[in-house]
């Protein structure tokens, strides 16, 4: 390749004619450089023309330059989001082999008993500097535009182990979502103050304090109080999800957003009538409203209009008064209203709860009960399976959004591998490579989606 000659003018050492020649050359080079520069700059602009028959310049935008900037900004944003993901210590375990059912890897993980814990009182110290605390693994910026445009409200009831609550919160936290954490006051001062301290570092987390007694109306009251707080705090969320502190997501926030959209305004409140434990209310007169009494899970996803109905409709208040005299009201108050089409409850299922022997498939949570011991490789506490490492392969391809439940100090690699899987999938969301991870058609074809009372969210 030919080298470009560099012209230098030494006027004091050459004849006048040579000096004049150099001046002319300088002028020509300047003109050429100017013309080249103008042509280059014009190549970075585009022009809209021929408006109303005339030549009208409507935009002059450095499109190529801005495109480069946009690309750089997008890359910078992705890098920033990736750096927010928590670092998971897998202790040399291959979690993906565990989810694939590798027996040797499962045994290896079961032998790991080390648990890194944080005393509840230490959260007061950790949250003194909120900027530093949020860097522990919270996604403080929306992962995608789709998620930012579709905020979710969460009600979480907790009763122990702030260190595990923090791990759940890190997994589900997004700045566009809203969270109400009900702290059972019986948990003790350290837990209560620690949760308040965590919430103080975020604008979208509120704390509720209702003493909850197992199988009593206080469980319903805790949910209702949080629903009222979230309803008043923000008007943008379309769905509300209820959780417990020992649950963990099977899907990322983006997955959950897409699942909720596919519900098309219906509630995800699974229930049955055949096994509804009639003895819980047989001592009472029949309710004064046309409600279908069912039994279902106490964790669900419901529309904002359903929440509005629960909070303000007189019939919902009447049914609440009736329900307060029953046992285990948390398993039939919300559930019965969401299966009572005669009451025109928004999002309620208009069909019969049973679709086959066990009812239509629940998508809210994956859980195992003591009457199905073959499905639990962990241990049972109050008839609910506390999942262990060997249970993870069963969860790999579930349509559920959450799992109930884990203990962080029981077979600790079970929860750790759930985290590893969750954050790897969140990484895919950040990089935009998750389009085929969930089967949206499955959710769109659920009976409760096809047959429900309109709630204003329908496509």
Automatic annotation (TrEMBL):
Q: What is its main location?
A: membrane
Q: How does it sit in the membrane?
A: Single-pass type II membrane protein
Functional pathway: Protein modification; protein glycosylation
Is this entry keyworded Transmembrane? yes
Where does the record place it? Membrane
Keywords on record:
Glycoprotein, Glycosyltransferase, Membrane, Signal-anchor, Transferase, Transmembrane, Transmembrane helix
Q: A Pfam family name for this chain?
A: Branch
Q: Which residues cross the membrane?
A: 27-47
User: GO terms for molecular function, please?
Assistant: acetylglucosaminyltransferase activity
User: Cellular component GO terms, alphabetically?
Assistant: membrane
> Is Membrane there in the keyword field?
yes
The domain of life for this entry's organism is Eukaryota
Q: Which family does it belong to?
A: Belongs to the glycosyltransferase 14 family.
Name of the protein this chain belongs to: Uncharacterized protein
């Amino acid at each position: 390749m030919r080298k470009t000659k560099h012209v230098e003018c030494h006027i004091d050492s050459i004849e006048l004619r040579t000096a004049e020649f150099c001046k002319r050359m300088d002028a020509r080079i300047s003109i050429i450089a100017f013309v080249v520069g103008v042509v280059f700059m014009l190549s970075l602009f585009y022009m809209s023309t021929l408006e109303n028959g005339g030549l009208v310049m409507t935009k002059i935008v450095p499109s190529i330059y801005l495109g480069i900037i946009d690309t750089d900004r997008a890359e910078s944003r992705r890098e920033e989001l990736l750096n927010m993901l928590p670092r998971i210590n897998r202790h040399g375990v291959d979690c993906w082999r565990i989810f694939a059912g590798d027996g040797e890897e499962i045994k290896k993980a079961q032998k790991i008993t080390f648990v890194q814990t944080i005393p509840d009182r230490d959260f007061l110290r950790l949250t003194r500097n909120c900027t530093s605390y949020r860097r522990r693994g919270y996604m403080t910026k929306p992962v995608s535009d789709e998620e930012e445009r579709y905020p979710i409200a969460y009600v979480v009831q907790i009763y122990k182990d702030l260190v595990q609550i923090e791990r759940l919160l890190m997994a589900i936290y997004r700045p566009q979502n809203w969270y109400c954490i009900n702290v059972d006051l019986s948990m003790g001062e350290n837990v209560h103050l620690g949760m308040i301290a965590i919430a103080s570092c975020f604008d979208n987390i509120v704390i509720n304090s209702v003493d909850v007694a197992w199988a009593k109306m206080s469980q319903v009251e805790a949910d209702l109080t949080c629903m009222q707080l979230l309803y008043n705090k923000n008007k943008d969320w379309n769905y509300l999800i209820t959780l417990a502190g020992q649950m963990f997501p099977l899907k990322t926030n983006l997955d959950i957003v897409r699942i909720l959209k596919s519900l098309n305004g219906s509630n995800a409140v699974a229930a049955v009538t055949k096994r509804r434990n009639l003895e819980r209310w047989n001592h009472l007169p029949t309710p004064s409203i046309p409600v279908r009494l069912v039994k279902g899970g106490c964790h669900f996803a419901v529309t904002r209009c359903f929440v509005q109905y629960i909070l303000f409709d007189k019939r919902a208040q009447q049914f609440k008064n009736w329900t307060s005299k029953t046992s285990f009201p948390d398993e039939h108050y919300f559930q019965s209203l969401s299966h009572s089409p005669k009451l025109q409850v928004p999002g309620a299922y208009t069909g019969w709860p049973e679709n086959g022997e066990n009812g239509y498939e629940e998508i809210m949570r994956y859980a195992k009960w003591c009457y199905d011991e073959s499905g639990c490789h962990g241990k049972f506490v109050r008839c609910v399976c506390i999942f262990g490492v060997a249970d993870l392969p069963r969860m790999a391809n579930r349509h559920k959004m959450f799992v109930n439940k884990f203990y962080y100090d029981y077979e600790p690699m079970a929860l750790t591998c759930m985290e590893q899987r969750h954050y790897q999938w969140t990484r895919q969301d950040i990089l935009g490579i998750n389009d085929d991870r969930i089967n949206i058609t499955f959710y769109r074809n659920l009976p409760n989606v096809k047959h429900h009372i309109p709630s204003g969210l329908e496509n």
